[in-house]
Amino acid sequence: MQPVNLFNLASTQSQWLSVRQSAIAGNIANVNTPGYGTAEVEPFEKVLNNKSVGLTATQEGHFAAGVTNAAFAVRNENTTNSVLPSKNSVVLENELMKAGDVRRTFELNTAIVKSFHRMMMLSVKG
Questions:
Q1: pTM of the model as a whole
Q2: pLDDT by residue (tens digit) across 11-33?
Q3: Long-range contacts: 87-91, Cβ < 8 Å, 24+?
Q4: Are 75 and 27 in contact (CB under 8 A)?
Q5: Where along the chain do its domains lie?
Q6: From CA 99, how far away is CA 93, in angstroms rounded?
């Protein structure tokens, strides 16, 4: 049985969400640190665009096409309109909204994988 691409996609998104949650937690932890710049992870859509999906050779005569790994780049965002007098660009409300978004996305990811797994198990039984 061939691996299902949905599980790989969900796993990649879970890893990305974990990295994003770490960046958000670091921002919240440094909300009162003078000169600290907000860190953010590149959008997941950009990660998918950088990840090429190739065919896997199942027989010797097939052409091999490799799949590149997606990197999760964390970048510092210096927004001039939200810099505080301490030269800190972290806005706590924005970070809490991002954390809620990560939680909702992770729950959706888990629900989709769970439903797909249930569907696969029913198709194997029947």
A1: 0.71
A2: 889 999 999 999 999 999 988 88
A3: 87/34, 87/35, 88/30, 88/31, 88/32, 88/33, 88/34, 88/35, 88/36, 88/37, 89/36, 89/37, 89/38, 90/27, 90/28, 90/30, 90/31, 90/36, 90/38, 91/38
A4: no
A5: 5-125
A6: 10
